[in-house]
Amino acid sequence: MSTGASLVEKAKKSAAYQAVDENFPENAKVVGVGSGSTVIYVAERIGQLKNKESFVCIPTGFQSKQLIIDNGLRLGTIEQYPEVDIAFDGADEVDTELNLIKGGGACLFQEKLVAAAASKFVVVADFRKRSPSKLGIQWRKGIPIEIVPCAYAKVIKELKSMGATTVDLRQGGSAKAGPVVTDNNNFLIDADFGEVADPAKLHTDIKQLVGVVETGLFVQMADKTYFGEESGDVKCWSK
Ligand SMILES: O=C(CO)[C@H](O)[C@H](O)COP(=O)(O)O
After folding, report:
1. What is the spatial distance between Cα 207 and Cα 148, in angstroms, rounded to a whole number?
2. Which GO terms describe its biological process (predicted)?
């Protein structure tokens, strides 16, 4: 009998494999590979393609770079290849409009950069990531926001005055004393705004604060999301 943890793992793998099988363009030249535990299976599946010498993969951070290398894929950079044919990535929450919260794994800036450069953006997730309506229902840790380190006190104060109920400078926990440092040498704030009524407005309001590099609200960027279900099925939401 499958345990809860192995059901989740199977769900991630099924979603990732189906997303690659149904969307990988035959003549792809540049492919974005996201970050997180679900994307591990995306990289694995792409690594099984017979023509893997014919395209380059663009990472969204350190872990993603390792996944590309470990699966025998060609590594490129977004500076060399600013036009991406397709990007695959995970998400922390997906709403019914296909808006996302991302950044639980601290990679949101490069994830958004690669997704924004991509002609098609496909998300892979397990059933726990699906919101019944708005963002902020399933993912209760707050919206991840990447900031320049010296701006943290100012931005925290401003986010509180914008109505965030909890605002935390993300800490490394037992793995690191002090704040998490991103792949871009920045800090991360998690700001809880509850249920997000208007993700585009919230993103714009936060982005205007001096010191904010990027928010983990991915508004109308995803073309499709594949959810691996507890039953073993995969559900696809598309625009
Ligand atoms: O946004 C991310 C990292 O910044 C990840 O894509 C997101 O956290 C989902 O990760 P996982 O597939 O491990 O649940």
Report:
1. 12
2. D-ribose metabolic process; pentose-phosphate shunt, non-oxidative branch
148 alpha carbon to ligand 1 midpoint, in Å?
Answer: 21
The yes or no reply on domain 4-132+220-238 and CATH 3.40.50.1360 is yes
Long-range pairs, 199-204, Cβ under 8 A, ≥24: 199/95, 199/99, 199/135, 202/143
Q: How many CB atoms are closer than 10 A to CB 20?
A: 24
CA of 203 to the centre of ligand 1 (A): 19
Residue 60 has a CB neighbour count (10 Å cut-off) of 30
Query: Going by CA atoms, what residue is nearest to atom 10 of ligand 1?
Result: 36
Which class for 197: exposed (0-12), middle (13-18), buried (19 or more C-beta within 10 A)?
exposed
Query: How confident is the model over 132-166, as pLDDT tens digits?
Result: 999 999 999 999 999 999 999 999 999 999 999 99
Going from the Cα of 197 to the center of ligand 1, the distance in angstroms, rounded, reads 22
Residues tagged active-site: 111
Structural domain spans, the chain:
4-132+220-238, 143-216
Q: Which residue of 14, 37, 111 sits with most ligand 1 atoms within 8 Å of its CB, as the best mutation to test the pocket?
A: 37
Question: What pLDDT digit, counting tens, does each position of 73-95 carry?
Answer: 999 999 999 999 999 999 999 99
What is 143-216's CATH topology?
Answer: Alpha-Beta Plaits (3.30.70)
Q: Is the CB of 61 under 6 A from ligand 1?
A: no
Q: Which atom of ligand 1 is nearest to the CA of 108?
A: 4
